[in-house]
Specification:
single chain, about 375 residues, alpha+beta, 3-stranded antiparallel β-sheet, 20 strands, about 15% helix, about 30% strand, elongated
Length: about 375
């Protein structure tokens, strides 16, 4: 019989301070690993070349040198002969297809190592590097972050080639311990809990106000905002459910006494609390995140969260609106599978109420990666 767990989380009403977030960038290119003789080759850029090659002798006869663009593809020539494989030009490394000589972009695998070559468009493109240039350092492909071995410095991994993707390894990068899975995906662990959960199927949320609430408590709007924000952050649609019985998550908003009654709590239980969440789940898998064993759960049954009305005034201050929105987004985050809390004071999943109510990228990625891996 599977073990069923229930998570109850509370959000405290205490002041917080703002913490700085880490920035990242590309590392240096390696000037020392140049193959012998490559720099001595002349480099001539010819755009929109219209010559046709008939055979190998014709290539030599034309005596092309350097980069040539033909039919939308780039090639590099040495005295009329197409280069193939790795080639360094203008301070960057390129990979030319072993058979056709076409310059490659995006992911390639060479001798068991994966490299990322600057694409013309799309995720991962570095606008400061030429098309096709091998990148290094952090690469954001929209769903996941990857790290490509820099040439030198503290982040360099001497066990793999320059530019190769980190995989199946835990490394300290920019003074932070980070875990990369078998596909090179950076597994962000952004919570103080060892658990995380996901919903297998559709996710619908139904919001309910309990008792008499003030006109300033726009709870249904807050739930809508939270649904849309979290849906974008984790890459999964979180829909409005019109019937409470069909919703995967029920959201309750109201006075402290009405919330305690709705959840069957003792009167006065929630003093000092802004909200709480209950998430039933069963164990699904075990992963390694940041070098530590983590438990992945599948959420089942019906989850619920409760948000306490901050003010009885007909018109709320901006601070009250923002703190109430943060509380709603925070508790929905728990129901979506973010167990525990973040230690970043501007995160929605920080354990104390504040005015920053938008989901930050790192806390969103904490759940996004799990939904991508297991959903």
């Amino acid at each position: 019989m599977k073990r069923i767990l229930v998570l109850a989380c509370v959000l405290l009403l205490i002041p917080v301070t703002t913490l700085a977030h880490e920035a990242s960038g590309h590392g240096p290119y390696d000037p020392s690993s140049l193959p012998p003789g490559v720099e001595a080759q002349p480099e001539i850029i010819e755009h929109n070349d219209v010559f046709q090659e008939d055979n190998l002798a014709d290539q030599r006869a034309r005596n092309w040198n350097g980069w040539v663009q033909r039919n939308g593809f780039w090639y590099s020539y040495n005295n009329g002969i197409r280069r193939t494989g790795w080639f360094r030009s203008g301070g960057a490394w390129y990979f030319l297809h072993p058979s056709t000589g076409r310059m490659q972009t995006g992911w390639i695998t060479v001798s068991g190592h994966s490299y990322f070559l600057n694409p013309r468009t799309g995720h991962g493109r570095d606008p400061n590097r030429p098309e096709g240039a091998m990148l290094n350092g952090w690469v954001d492909l929209g769903t996941y972050w990857y790290f490509l071995n820099p040439a030198t410095g503290n982040n360099h991994n001497p066990a793999i080639p320059y530019g190769a993707m980190f995989r199946n390894v835990t490394r300290v990068i920019n003074n932070v311990r980070r875990q990369f899975d078998h596909g090179g995906r950076w597994l962000i662990w952004h919570s103080d809990s060892h658990e995380v959960s996901f919903w297998q199927g559709a996710i619908g949320v139904h919001s309910i106000t309990v008792g008499t609430v003030s006109a300033g408590f726009q709870f249904h709007t807050q739930v809508t905002n939270a649904r849309l924000d979290w849906g974008q952050a984790i890459g999964v649609p979180i829909n409005l459910s019109l019937a409470p019985s069909l919703a995967q998550i029920r959201a309750f908003g109201g006075t402290r006494a009405s919330m305690e009654f709705a959840d069957g709590r003792e009167p006065g239980w929630s003093t000092g609390i802004g909200g709480w969440a209950i998430t039933p789940r069963t164990h699904h898998a075990t992963i390694i995140g940041n070098g530590t064993v983590r438990q992945v759960n599948r959420t089942n049954g019906q989850a619920s969260f409760f948000v306490i009305e901050l003010s009885t005034a007909a018109t709320w201050t901006a601070a009250n609106r923002e703190m109430s929105q943060m509380t709603t987004s925070h508790e929905l985050g728990h129901n979506l599978g973010f167990h525990g809390h973040s230690n970043h004071a501007t995160d929605v999943m920080f354990p104390s109420v504040h005015r920053h109510y938008r989901v930050n990228p790192t806390e969103g990625q904490h759940l996004r990666q799990i939904y991508r891996m297991f959903r």
